[in-house]
Amino acid sequence: MGDRAERLGRTLAxxxxxxxxEVIVPSFGTADVAEAVxxxxxxxxxxxxxxxxxxxxxxAVSAAVTPxxxxxxxxxxxxxxxxxxxxxxTARRHGLLIVEFEESxxxxxxxxxxxxxxxxxxxxxxxxxxxxxxxGAGHTYQQYVVRIPGNGRPDRDAxxxxxxxxxxxxxxxxxxxxxxxxxxxxxxxxxxxxxxxETERASDECLALPVEAGLRKxxxxxxxxxxxxxxxxxQPAA
Length: 238
Prior knowledge:
The chain is built from 8 helices and 8 strands. The chain has helices spanning 3-14, 32-39, 58-64, 84-94, 108-124, 153-165, 197-205, 217-231; strands at residues 22-26, 43-47, 69-72, 75-76, 97-98, 101-102, 144-147, 206-209.
């Protein structure tokens, strides 16, 4: 567990979250958030994400509230801010605590470079689904995550394999949703949903491409060209 997750656990405990309380968290992303909830003695309850932002879906959060719910942790995913206004409505209605979580921090200069590199790729990539930014949300592009069209995980993994063979680094941002990790599986249907459709779909389709500071325009041009050469070959299943 990272330092930020440990601080999150202490913040939850200091804010009144107690043993046996439930805290609504995303399953798509790092396990640190769920681990922090456990550190506070509480039970993580997993809710689904929005397809575009990869952050908690306010409607899924509302549906996950029970009499035992004490807090919500809307993680800002890949640098895209969660819908705090929508989630806040549920929190106010039920008197719940909201504690935000960001996986990492960066300087303004680093963020600006990533945003410029992301804009370059978004304007040039074809055949993949580029990141969308909700109005007013903002995006720091701590990861530049695209969706690979086709038949889910097999096509995504094949796409990544070809890029790596060309010397282009890429990574699967979420290999396994947290609710499917053995240490978080529970028989309680409230805390172990049978199916989080957008979470499952994102874990099968998403691929993170490089946009970090230090990349040259020719690196980005080469990346876009390699992706575009593959994009048209992968078509959604009929």
